[in-house]
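Appendix B. One record, verbatim.
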Amino acid sequence: MARKIIQVNKNPVYEIGMIATVFGKETQFFGELTFKKSLQINGTFEGEISSGGFLVIGEGAVVKANINAKVVIVNGTVYGNIEAKEKLEIQPSGRVYGNIRTAKLKIADGVIFEGSCEMIKPYEEISGKVSAPKTEAVSQVN
């Protein structure tokens, strides 16, 4: 009888799905980071982050970056501005030192947040509508 070997993916799973890539606790990354699916950072990152997917800042992680993503979950520390087009969650161990813009916001008890917050229209509404043309006022001197 042949045995089947089953590999179990140990990446974390959240309500929004399973994490595709994980930067470990010993990872240090500097620069511009773009990705399409999902990423969890458990180490240190410094630079810029841009994604159409979701980003998880793991507990104990330190991120010094401006972040632009669809969904952001913060369990660690972020120094920089965050724009989450759909949702931003700051968990009890999370710390955010910067301004945030998001369509939905969830902040747990015990969070440290220093900055301002701007609520934006949900991502689906923005991408589904055609914006009206800009009009300019022109003055004439005779």
